[in-house]
Write a structure and sequence with these properties.
The protein is α/β, with parallel strands linked by helices and about 250 residues long. It has helices at about 1-25, 50-60, 85-90, 95-100, 125-130, 135-145, 180-185, 195-205, 235-245, and strands spanning about 25-30, 45, 65-70, 75-80, 115-120, 150, 175, 205-210, 220, 225. The longest helix has 22 residues, at about 1-25.
């Protein structure tokens, strides 16, 4: 009987390990719920390619991806470039379209299930990422559980107010990259967005890195992965995957 008990215990332990491994194959993508570009009346949302390109890299590597947004449900998006085969693949994927059209709310997310979180960009993020304490708490929990926090383009708006248990901002002292002041000025939205992303990250202690307009730039520092613009989205996915392989 003792032998059976030990064998049963070993089976339970193995099952727990397998369950943890399975959970750690999951990545949480954050997308905006905001659909208006300030007082311009123009539509906005998340930028499709900043979801699809990291999704493609990670899903091909057999990571399961879930989606969360501040309000849940079907979030707005733009940038549906018909010439981008990765966009078309995502839009034709019934499983992931069902997930995206029914995004989780922050209260439905268990951070312990995820090895990484990725804040996708799009101008909508500038209105509903920075002050969302529930999303910040999810990212903090994932990071302090030895996970990865990542963001691309305007997605780092979600990083500006994340604080760790030591009281410091997540970005403080780390090399960080995001949509730059120069890029915002170039598209004439610097007076439309509610704050300057680059300047705010620097105020929080980030060691801000950047390249020229629309140049791919991905920065990795202490399990934080950030990309400058839509052109950096694929590279962010690859960098997150490389970090996941280290866990």
């Amino acid at each position: 009987m003792a032998g059976c008990t030990i064998f049963s215990g070993l089976n339970q332990a193995a099952a727990q390990v397998n369950a943890i491994k399975k959970m750690n194959k999951k990545v949480l993508f954050v997308v905006t719920s905001h659909d208006k570009l300030g007082e311009t009346g123009e539509p906005t949302g998340y930028y499709l390619g900043e979801v699809t390109h990291p999704w493609h890299v990670l899903s091909e590597a057999r990571y399961e991806i879930d989606f969360v947004s501040p309000k849940g449900g079907n979030p707005p998006y733009y940038g549906a470039n018909a010439d981008d085969p990765v966009n078309q693949k995502f839009l034709a994927d019934k499983k992931y379209q069902a997930k995206m059209q029914h995004t989780l709310t922050p209260s439905e997310v268990n951070p312990a299930e995820y090895a990484a979180i990725l804040y996708a960009g799009g101008h909508g993020t500038m209105w509903d990422f920075a002050d969302n304490t529930a999303l910040a708490a999810i990212a903090q929990a994932i990071y302090e559980n030895n996970g990865i926090v990542s963001a691309v383009c305007h997605g780092p708006a979600g990083l500006v107010n994340i604080k760790l248990n030591n009281g410091r901002y997540l970005v403080d002292g780390k090399k960080i990259n995001a949509f730059t002041n120069e890029e915002e000025i170039a598209i004439k939205l610097d007076k439309v967005v509610p704050f300057s992303l680059e300047s705010t990250l620097i105020e929080r202690g980030a060691k801000f890195e950047k390249s020229g307009l629309w140049q791919p730039h991905v920065t990795v520092d202490q399990r934080v992965v950030t990309g400058q613009n839509p052109q950096s989205a694929h590279g962010v996915g690859e960098a997150v995957l490389a970090e996941l392989k280290k866990l």
